[in-house]
Amino acid sequence: MSFRPDRAPLSGRIVLVTGAHGGLGSAASKACAQAGATVVLLGRKVRQLEKLHDAIAAIAKAPVLYPLDLEGASPDDFAELAARIDDAYGRLDGILHCAADFRGLTPIEHTEPSAFARAMHVNVTAPAWLTQACLPVLRKSNDASVVFVVDDLERVSSAYWGAYGLAQHARVGLVSMLHAELANSPIRVAGLQPGPMRTGLRAKAFVDDMDRDARDPAFAAQACVELLSPMGVAFNGEIANGATGELE
Hints:
Elements: E1 14-18, H1 23-34, E2 38-43, H2 46-57, E3 64-67, H3 75-89, E4 94-97, H4 113-138, E5 144-149, H5 153-156, H6 162-181, E6 187-193, H7 200-203, H8 218-228, E7 239-241
Parallel strand pairs: 1-2, 1-4, 2-3, 4-5, 5-6, 6-7
Helix pairs in contact: 1-8, 3-4, 4-6
């Protein structure tokens, strides 16, 4: 999808996308760039980030690469990220949290403690630290938006979803908590439940013939753009349902 410059909903905005080389992260990064944003691509796989950079540069303003592995990142690493964005742009207008860790359906009884800790850290602790570090830079925007991509809580509350399932509940709680704390600031906070998508992460739980309802991640990319744009004000503090391709 392309926009006229005078109608691009993210025109002039600086948007950070985590897990940018993943299924939804990649589609959303492209959509945000086409909507006029300068996109900061954060991810741990440098070669995939470089390929995404080139793909975006061919259709919109070239994005910025920021290789970082959330699993090993410390609060100091996130503080440095925020400082670099501040130095380069003087503000941050949005964060889209797409990064996720899920290694497959496993009984908690048989889950390695390190795998459990990794999933909780990448899915909850790291995005919380990153958001915390970026709040001062987000406050410099007249209209900033933080969006957490979340899974279907009813589905991931069932057996074998382990730390990933628990983390999804925590992400939803984080949306509510941050919304309440930032109510008198220019920062909006929302969640997006995009519905079933054909991604590498989902393939670890479902085989193709059991997952015919899953859509291309590009189907949910426009919902990400809307939540990051001024239109997202209608979903401030809420978990928006993007399963139909339109926010509900």
